[in-house]
Each structure stands twice: as structure tokens, then as C-alpha cells.
Design goal:
By secondary structure, the chain is an alpha+beta fold. The chain contains 6 helices and 10 strands, in the order H-H-E-E-H-E-E-H-H-E-E-E-E-H-E-E.
Length: 308
């Protein structure tokens, strides 16, 4: 991503922050309008703001996604126990979390027409280097209290029967997530009520005219019962049309986890080949990017939710 594009994005995010938090619901309503148009939404403080999808960056973006996936309906997975609307419309989701820098580029396209889906909202969320999720640090530590790197007993992940247990409903279904009741109608997991005010490694972006969003984050850590992954959810209009997960090559996981802060979290028990959710199509296309990495993937969403 070119520096001037990131500058525009940061400036827009800074301006929005100055007039109050814009809830995801307001963004979804605004994005239900015609593609490529600006929309005015009301913030939590009663102010108004204009939301315009990100600008396309041209040929470089085509190269980024070449060979990263094909136009096949992306398999849906469980949303897991740690999803909630974080009210964070931003590209840099790191906050104070330490780890290897990772830029994630996601292109969303229609699974039937293979055309880019502009004005879709893409959310991602994942654990930090020690396996903790913001908004759920106590639950994700498995200890009833804070854990993570340097915190003693390693995080143990979801409670029994959660996403790590891989019951039949946790496996990819090929169906769009959602329908009446949203993704919870598929996996039996409703949205989490946050237990703390942390919001690191969570955020949302609006796809541009090329169907692309980009995030800056850190390489995810791990927790017991799951391989390394990022959760992703796509909204079209007010509907959740895809809930899936993004995965990583194990050789790269090994390389990243040899360095701090990952190295202090030992005892990893689940890898791609032993994970009940992992599928090869979920692998990000990873390239080196300075002192970090860049990951890209194409997600094909059933935007009209007709099962095709």
C-alpha cells in the first residue's frame, strides 16, 4: 500500500475520531447506498460524518491478489466465542499489542458474478501474541483473569464446546453465514458481551471500488485447541453474508514464533493439519514486507444469500 493512500486513510480516521465513535450499524446503513457514493452518518455523540469507501490503488493491487484464490464460494466457519461489534472503523488495529507486523489485504467478490463487491464492510479480529482476545481477556486466558505473555499459565482458549472443540457445526459449511439471526444461526454462538474495554486487534473497513480493504495488525498468536488464524466477517447492506477464517503456512508460523514476544508462549498443541476448521483455501498468500509480512486473500461471498 502506498504511503499517500495510508495517509489519506489515517487522516479520515483521525477526523472521525475527533467527532466521536461511529457504530458499525451506522456504517452498514450508509454502505447500503449506491456503490462509490459518500453517505452521511450520525455518530454516538450526535455529530455527523461523511463516509466514503477507500480509493483503489491500481495495478499494484492486481499483482497483490494474483493467484491468491479463485472465484469459488468461500467456506463459512464458526464465528467463535469472541465476536462483537467493536465500533472501530480503522485500518491499523494494533494499538499497544507487540508482535511481527502484518498487513492484511482482503478482496471481496461476488461468488456468482466474480465481480468486486464495493461498499461491503469487512471486520477482522484475532488474538494477540499470547493468545488473548480484547474484550474477552479473562475468558480467553482460561484462568478467569488476565494472562498472556509473561502472565504465568498460558492461555487455554475457548471453553469446552467452543470453536476449538470442532463439533460438526464448527466445520466449514460452504453456506453463507447468517440468515435470520446472523452467524449465530449457523454455529450456535451468539455475539459476545465484552467483559472489558480493550479493543486491540479488532477493526472494520469498507471495501473500495475494487472490493479491497487493508489492515495493519500483528501476526496472531495461538491458544490451546486451535491453529493460528484470523476471523473475518463480511457485511453487505445490513446482512452478514460471510463469516470465515484466514490461516498461515506452518513454516512461517514457526519462523515468527521463534522471536519475541511469541517465544515466551510455549506448548503449542494444534497445527494446521490437526485443526478441525483449517482448509488449504483459507491460507493467506504471504510475502515479506520490510521488517514484517503482507498477506492477501480473495473472499467470494454469496452477497444475495441464495446459496450459490
Amino acid at each position: 500500500m502506498e504511503e499517500h493512500d495510508e495517509g489519506r486513510r489515517v487522516s479520515r480516521r483521525t477526523a472521525l475520531a475527533g467527532i466521536g465513535t461511529i457504530g458499525l450499524g451506522a456504517i452498514l446503513a450508509a454502505c447500503g447506498k449506491a456503490a462509490g457514493t459518500s453517505s452521511t452518518v450520525t455518530t454516538s455523540t450526535g455529530a455527523t460524518a461523511s463516509i466514503t469507501p477507500q480509493a483503489a490503488t491500481g495495478a499494484a493491487r492486481t499483482d497483490l491478489f494474483s493467484g491468491s484464490n479463485t472465484c469459488v464460494l468461500t467456506e463459512s466457519t464458526t464465528q467463535g466465542p469472541y465476536y462483537f461489534d467493536a465500533d472501530k472503523i480503522r485500518s491499523d488495529i494494533r494499538e499497544d499489542r507487540q508482535g511481527t507486523r502484518l498487513k492484511v489485504a482482503i478482496k471481496v467478490q461476488d461468488s456468482e458474478t466474480c465481480e468486486p463487491l464495493s461498499d461491503a464492510v469487512v471486520e477482522i479480529w484475532h488474538c494477540d501474541a499470547g493468545g488473548l482476545y480484547s474484550g474477552a481477556e479473562s475468558l480467553s486466558s482460561g484462568q478467569g483473569g488476565p494472562g498472556g505473555p509473561g502472565g504465568g499459565t498460558p492461555p487455554t482458549g475457548p471453553p469446552p464446546g467452543g470453536e476449538g472443540g470442532a463439533p460438526p457445526t464448527d466445520r466449514p459449511t460452504g453456506r453463507p453465514s447468517g440468515g435470520p439471526g446472523g452467524p449465530g444461526a449457523d454455529d450456535g454462538m451468539g455475539d459476545l458481551k465484552p467483559a472489558d474495554d480493550k479493543r486491540y486487534l479488532r477493526g472494520a473497513q469498507v471495501t473500495d471500488s475494487s472490493g479491497v480493504v487493508e489492515f495493519t495488525t500483528v501476526w496472531p498468536g495461538w491458544y490451546r485447541g486451535r491453529t493460528v488464524h484470523i476471523h473475518a466477517m463480511v457485511h453487505v447492506g445490513k446482512a452478514r453474508v460471510l463469516t470465515t477464517q484466514l490461516m498461515f503456512d506452518e513454516d512461517l508460523n514457526t519462523e515468527v514464533f521463534a522471536a519475541e514476544p511469541y517465544a515466551r508462549h510455549t506448548g503449542r498443541d494444534t497445527f494446521n493439519d490437526g485443526d478441525g476448521i483449517y482448509r488449504p483455501a483459507m491460507l493467506l498468500k504471504i510475502t515479506e514486507d520490510g521488517d514484517g509480512y503482507r498477506g492477501a486473500i480473495v473472499l467470494s461471498a454469496d452477497s444475495d444469500r441464495d446459496g450459490a
